[in-house]
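Example record

The entry below shows one chain as it appears in the dataset: sequence first, then structure tokens.
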Amino acid sequence: MDPNNYWCLQENRDSFILILTAISLWSIPWKAFALWRSAQRNQKVWFIVFMIINTAALLEIIYLFVLSKKSKHTPNQQ
């Protein structure tokens, strides 16, 4: 194995790990807040979607700022 290729792969791996860590740290709080809000509103379909699909927080942000604002439903109101 050519040593130059090994170091190139090592540098790419480190960059990949750094990018993956940054995306994870960005998306975890958004996912948690979206899961919390969908559970509070008793929206089981959204809860399941957020648990299964990882969109780097894009879907969660759209849900929190657009879709959840449209329906001001609170579970305690009759």
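Notes for this example: The longest helix spans residues 3-40. The radius of gyration is 19 Å.
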